[in-house]
Amino acid sequence: MNNEGKSKLKQYILIATYIIVLSFILLNLSALNSGLGKTLSILSPFTTAIGIAFVFNLPMKLFENKVFNFLDNQKSPTAKKLKRPLSILATIITIFGLLITLIVFVIPQLVESVSTLVDSVPGYMRSFEHLINQYVNSTELLKIISDKLLLAWKDILQVGGQLLGNSLNGILNVTIGITSGVVNFILSLVLAIYMLASKETLLLQLKKFIYAFSKRSFADRIMEIGNIANVTFASFITGQCIEAVIIGFLCFIGMTILALPYALLISVIIGVTALIPIFGAFIGIIPSAFIIMIISPIQAMIFVIFIIVLQQFEGAFIYPKVVGGSIGLSAIWVMLAMLVGGSLFGFLGMLLGIPTFGVIYKLISRSTTNKLKSKDISFK
Q1: 188-220: b or e for each residue (b if 16 or more CB lie within 10 Å)?
Q2: Widest CA span of the chain, in angstroms?
Q3: Which of 164, 193, 233, 304 is 20–30 Å from 371 (CA)?
């Protein structure tokens, strides 16, 4: 068999292999999806740890470069080695300290609001009873209701039993879910601390692996994409935090001007929920409006209108400038990234769509620039 025949035979074998593999995937799609789901579930603590380590790395670098940098000048090797552990400890204390402070600050206000609501319930009931008495005879109404209940007592008992069983099952499932979530979070946190403590070693090992089992040009491309992704996602997280602070501060100023109650508490809630891109402040409206409604329904309505206006202003001007500018995207690309990411992957796609699109945008821009240079074409 000549070389041409051997080449065609290899092509036919390769095509047949692709067809067999594709057929196997299509015929066993449900089994593959189930296996993929189980694999992702097993790896979830590890993937969560990567996310925690990435976020914690931002303040950790700040502590290393600005707070504990004096340890680099120490003669003792032991003192120099303390720089990373102290930075990790300071990062954990800072982040969890902020969370605990927020919880301690918000919970008493919520308890007070619920207590106020409970105290107001008797007055609401009396008003409702007075309204009913104006239009119907309460004795006749109660008699009709009691007769209907007596006729339907079997159905009521059956539905009640089903609700009780579902409630017990739901409580059990929630308890198991919470316990599993806490265990996975603790495991992820431990893994994240280990990743932060030895991030240079882990990155070097990954780099060696990529260069060892791939072509040099492909490995260089992977390193380039990794660097762009690291810078883009870090800039996105930083910009998102800055944007949350700005929206919380503007909320506090607006509520103070409008003389709305719990201005500081609600501004903190709006600022925290604003960490979710674009629609975060809308999520914060629900508990905030409930707190204000207990004091005054009219003020709650004013608050909702104010937040909607503030959200429109934030989405049109603040967010594209702060977050979009930090990752090199204009306002239209930020909105497009959110719409595409949200439609394809839901809430997670909405969160990660903007930095992912930022990476793609930079790669396409670089490729376009290089192509134009190779063709000696320039645009003013």
Answers
A1: bbebbbebbbeeeeeeeeeeeeeeeeeeeeebe
A2: 104
A3: 233
Which amino acid, 314?
A: E
pLDDT tens-digit readout, 194-215 = 888 888 888 889 899 988 888 8
- Tell me the whole-structure pTM to 2 decimals: 0.65
pLDDT at 311: 79
Torsion of Cα atoms, 21 then 23 then 27 then 29, to 10°: 50
Nearest-angstrom CA–CA distance, 268 and 266: 5
Residue 376 — left, alpha, or beta (φ > 0 → left; ψ -120 to 50 → alpha)?
Answer: left
Q: Using CB atoms within 10 A of its CB, is residue 314 exposed (0-12), middle (13-18) or buried (19+)?
A: buried
Distances (CA, A) of 307 to 194, 246, 284, 315: 42, 14, 9, 12
**How many residues are given for the chain?**
380
In whole angstroms, what is the distance from residue 212 CA to residue 219 CA?
Answer: 9
Q: For the chain, give percent helix, strand, coil, nearest 5.
A: 90, 0, 10
**For residue 378, which amino acid is it?**
S
Would you say 342 and 349 are in contact if contact means Cβ atoms under 8 Å apart? Answer: yes
3-state secondary structure 156-168: HHHHHHHHHHHHH
Does pLDDT of 57 surpass 80? yes
- Other Cβ atoms less than 10 A from the Cβ of 43: the count is 12
Q: Is pLDDT above 80 for 164?
A: no
> 251, 267 in Cβ contact below 8 A?
yes
336-345: pLDDT as tens digits: 777 777 777 6
Are 211 and 219 contacting, i.e. CB atoms less than 8 angstroms apart?
A: yes
For 100, the token pair is: 């605990």
Identity of residue 287: P
Within 10 angstroms of residue 57's Cβ, the number of other Cβ atoms is 21
